[in-house]
Amino acid sequence: MRSTRPWWVWLHRWVGLVAGLLMVLLGLSGALMVWQTELDRALNPAWLGPQALCPGADPGTARRRHAGGAAAQCPAGPARRGAGARAA
Questions:
Q1: Element containing residue 74 per DSSP (H, E)
Q2: How far apart are the C-alpha atoms of 55 and 79, rounded to whole Å?
């Protein structure tokens, strides 16, 4: 009678290696997600910089409008909802 032990050893080895590789990938991606904000700030500083409420608006016009105490308004509505601006 042939022993099935070598087959089980081979199966256990490869299932363990594949499962271990999967766990390493999950651990590394989770570790990167913990530092997501800091990585975005370091790798893509333009993403987190100041943005205009109205795309294509002249910053000088917006500055003069705010100096008079008027609320920020865009002819086509705010670029992002919840940005603190009201649509015209």
A1: strand 73-74
A2: 7
